[in-house]
Amino acid sequence: MISYGMLRKRCHNYIQKLIVYPVDISGKFSYNDRYIQGINNTLLVIEAKLKGSQNQYKVLDEMILTSQFIRNSCLRYWIDHKDVKRNDLQKLCSQLAKDVNFPWAKKLNSQARQASADRAWQSIQRFYKNCRQNKPGKKAYPKFKKFTRSVEYKTTGYKLSPDRKKIEFKDGFQAGVFELWTSRDLVWYSEQQISRVRVVRRADGYYCQFLVNVERKETHNFQGNVVGIDLGLNTFYTDSNGKAVDNPKYLRKSEKQP
């Protein structure tokens, strides 16, 4: 297993050497078109804390660092070539996985590598958009990441237990099984509803975020009446019809109690 420090050093050396990969540039794909159909859907984010061993946490660090390596490699390729499209970055992910100089790239799930390339393309698209709109000041030119704190999976590379209390990462890193500590119950959602799984590293531990597609329907019989409400200090609120509700002042009342 490659140590965390060795992996970081190799990633740093790779970016400094400015290695260029020969990738066949063909085909076009619009990144924005892929997400238009999901705008009207309701997406629910459920977060759970990952409980595992210290060795498992080290493997998660290597997964996150590999995601950073893929993202920076795609950005380096965009800088060194002209007319780079999103599809070209996806092809670069495949090239990196086959390169014997970077064996850790193949360990990361293929869809996780694609998600890392998408992150690079998002920063590139934001830069292009600011330039087209002639935004004043800095145009948010894409920068290399040094302290990435997350890695994102799509629909493969992991497996949830039937009771949704555990998750197993099954890609080349073999991080193993983690317990999911959360106040929200995932058992009500099928695996088909989970579109993304993101592992996030924070100061107090590691968390797993689930992006769930849900249908939210609210029925309301509109009567044609519109009321404006103004919240205040003297009164709790006053509506546009002149009705006022007194401030209950619970704190003041509790202070007067013996």
Summarize the structure.
The chain has 258 residues and is an alpha+beta fold. Helices cover 37% and strands 22% of the residues.
What is the fold's blueprint, element by element?
Layout: H1 4-17, H2 31-36, E1 42-51, H3 54-80, H4 86-98, H5 103-107, H6 110-132, E2 150-153, E3 158-160, E4 166-169, E5 176-181, E6 194-202, E7 205-214, E8 229-231, E9 235-239, E10 244-246, H7 250-256
Antiparallel strand pairs: 1-5, 1-7, 2-6, 3-4, 4-5, 6-7, 8-9, 9-10
Helix pairs in contact: 1-3, 3-4, 3-6, 4-6
What does this structure look like?
With 258 residues, this protein is α+β, with helices and mostly antiparallel strands. It has seven helices and ten strands. The strands form two sheets. Strands 2-6-7-1-5-4-3 form a seven-stranded antiparallel sheet. It is extended. It starts with a helix and ends with a helix. 24% of the residues are buried. Residues 7-40 have low confidence and may be disordered.
